[in-house]
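Q: My labmate handed me this sequence with no annotations at all. I'd like to see what the chain might look like in three dimensions before we decide whether it's worth expressing. Could you predict it?
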Amino acid sequence: MPDRRAFLQSAAKTAALAATTTHLRPLIAQATAPRSANDQINLALIGAGIQGQHDTSFAVQVPGVKLVAAADCYDGRLTHMKEVYGQDLFTTRDYKEILARKDVDAVLIATPDHWHKTAALDSMHAGKDVYLEKPMIHIYPDGPEIINAQKETNRVLQVGSQRVSSIIYSKAKELLASGAIGKLNMVTARWDRNSSMGAWNYTVPLDASPTTCDWPRFEGSAPHIPWNPERFFQWRKWHDYGSGVAGDLFVHLFSGTHFITGSHGPTRAMATGAIRFWKDGRDADDVLLALFDYPEGFNLSLHVNFVDGGEESEGFLFTGSEGLMEIDGGRGTVTVTRTPLATEPGYTISTFADAMQKDILKQYREKYPRQHPSGPPPEEVQTFTAPPGYSDSYDHFHNFFNSVCSRQPVVEDATFGFRASGAALLANRSVEKDAIIHWDPEAMKIV
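A: Here is what I predict for the chain of 447 residues:
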């Protein structure tokens, strides 16, 4: 999702935005042919909550894609899906009824985190291609199971961290590789929020009850407790169903870092956090800070603050030996500011006699002549901005459906997804154990 404010927009507003950006979108139909007999890709949604419906509004904008079914444990969401997509839309509480349908080509899984692995495995074994929302895993054993199932079934599986398809992040990757900021030594990233909704206090509908909500199905593998409407509709606040701010937001920051740098992940993690403000029964921290060591020779610093007194903020700062590169998620920009290392003697000789200063500067400049003795100096600040109305969510779905048609590799496969979510959950493990956690990014396991 582009940001929390956009995430909470209505489907109608999202569709209106999409209409303004059609000229930016490559047509999937020009490159490949859909697989269904009716010359389209038939998509089903598993988990029709806020993220699921938001994702679907972008997925159906891709030419040749049609939503034919939806599953959710709350009847009101299924009713709304029919209101938006038509009364002929097949809806059910049991997603296995969707997997049994021969007309479904692909599924979009946007369930609570604790259902990701099971829904993905069931879908792939049923012959469906899978778009799996982040974080790919809820617990570490989920990762190898999903990776192995994808290989065994030969289905297409793409993880839903759309920054991997962003033109802004692609530009940042290009700039870093070109040496625009010299040698990378530090990455600082943040995603802060300043609203109750952003803190996962999502609205509980007035008709919420064990009659309108399938609580046993929702619980799945989670520990059984009596019916609880807050846990059902605000599940991200509890680790039984979600992965805290690390799984919700750190994973976006890891996906962006790994995509831009080409790294497979950190080797060491240390984190701290607490419930600082939203003391409403949750067990997921509302403030989390973490540091990570990378084998490529840079450090990553992340923080999420759900008690941010300013505006919602998402972004990166890449620090190199010759400059800075900043990504502003809200504005859709990447800016490079070149600040080469100061190597001339400068103020360090200012206390010497004037003649000595002149001699030192003369010798220095003979040994290190200026690279730009004439002509204009290189541009010190460069900013690249996404076109108005640009959506990386659309591009990510376009890339997914292109792979569904072509059977070519996706832009974010299960291994990439596991490395991003596995690294993110190191922060949770560090807080839980009050310890430094070591990680093998190649083998994708805690060591």
